[in-house]
């Protein structure tokens, strides 16, 4: 090897590998860019998946936070509302009873699916001493449609036709349920389809003056 080769430290042709794409790399040294490409792509994919999961989790938490009513743990807004079957329902007169206030529409799919559970719950509470009072509130619906709905699905509890009541409770979507305890305090709030078992558990808790829980019970909606 000449002095010039020693000065520039030129590798011999035997020390260079030629890949199929014609890119050169030194034997035993760093792979070519072509060989690194799959690893770079994999790293980018992992980072993107991580960001997606993080953003999705953040959005879920945000939705959970924004769905909480400011009425939780506070006195329920009072009302005297006309009932669909006639007469007036006065919330103040129910002090000492647990009141389940369920906002619905007759063409809402989750509301339709929820109705048999409400019937089951109401029937069970009727035979109890001091059982909870279930009350449905029409939300952007017509009396005729609601009457047909209850005729076909059952249910003999009060149905309120008060267009101002949903806004007083900040209702924006249905089904939405408020559980008001024996002292007239909003104990629970859910924006989801409920079951008879969940409503029963919430009603029992709402009768307990020592219970400080104001979040839905596990598995009982948001």
Report on the structure:
This protein is an alpha/beta fold and 222 residues long. It has two domains: 1-66, no CATH class; 80-207, Glutaredoxin (3-Layer(aba) Sandwich). The relative contact order is 0.14. It is globular, with a radius of gyration of 32 Å. Helices cover 38% and strands 16% of the residues.
Rg calc: 32 Å
Shape: globular
Helix content: 25-40%
CATH topology name of the largest domain, in short, is Glutaredoxin
Structural class: alpha/beta
**Average pLDDT taken over every residue:** 78
Name of the CATH architecture of the largest domain: 3-Layer(aba) Sandwich
Overall domain count? 2
- Head-to-tail CA distance between termini: 79 Å
- Write out the CATH superfamily name of the largest domain: Glutaredoxin
- Quaternary structure annotation: single chain
Number of strands: 9
Strand order of the largest sheet: 7-6-5-8-9
Task: Provide the CATH top-level class of the largest domain.
Answer: Alpha Beta
Poorly predicted segments? 1-29, 51-67
SSE sequence, one letter per element: HEEHEEEHEHEHEEH
Strand content: 15-25%
Main sheet specs: 5 strands, mixed
- DSSP helix count? 6
């Amino acid at each position: 090897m000449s002095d010039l080769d020693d000065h520039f430290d030129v590798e011999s042709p035997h020390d260079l590998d030629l890949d199929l794409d014609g890119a050169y790399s030194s034997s035993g040294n760093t792979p070519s860019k072509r060989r690194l490409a799959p690893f770079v792509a994999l790293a980018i994919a992992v980072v993107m998946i991580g960001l997606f999961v993080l953003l999705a989790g953040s959005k879920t938490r945000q939705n959970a936070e924004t769905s909480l009513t400011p009425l939780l743990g506070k006195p329920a807004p009072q009302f005297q509302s006309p009932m669909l079957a006639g007469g007036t329902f006065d919330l103040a007169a129910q002090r000492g009873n647990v009141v389940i206030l369920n906002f619905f529409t007759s063409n809402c799919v989750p509301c339709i699916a929820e109705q048999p559970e409400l019937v089951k719950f109401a029937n069970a509470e009727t035979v109890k001493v001091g059982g909870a009072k279930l009350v449905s509130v029409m939300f952007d619906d017509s009396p005729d449609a609601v009457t047909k709905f209850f005729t076909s699905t059952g249910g003999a509890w009060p149905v309120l036709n008060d267009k101002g009541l949903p806004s007083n409770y900040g209702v924006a979507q249905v089904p939405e349920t408020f559980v008001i305890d024996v002292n007239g305090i909003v104990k629970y709030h859910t924006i989801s389809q409920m079951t008879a078992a969940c409503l029963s558990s919430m009603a029992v808790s709402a009768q307990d003056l020592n219970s400080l829980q104001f979040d839905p019970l596990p598995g009982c909606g948001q």
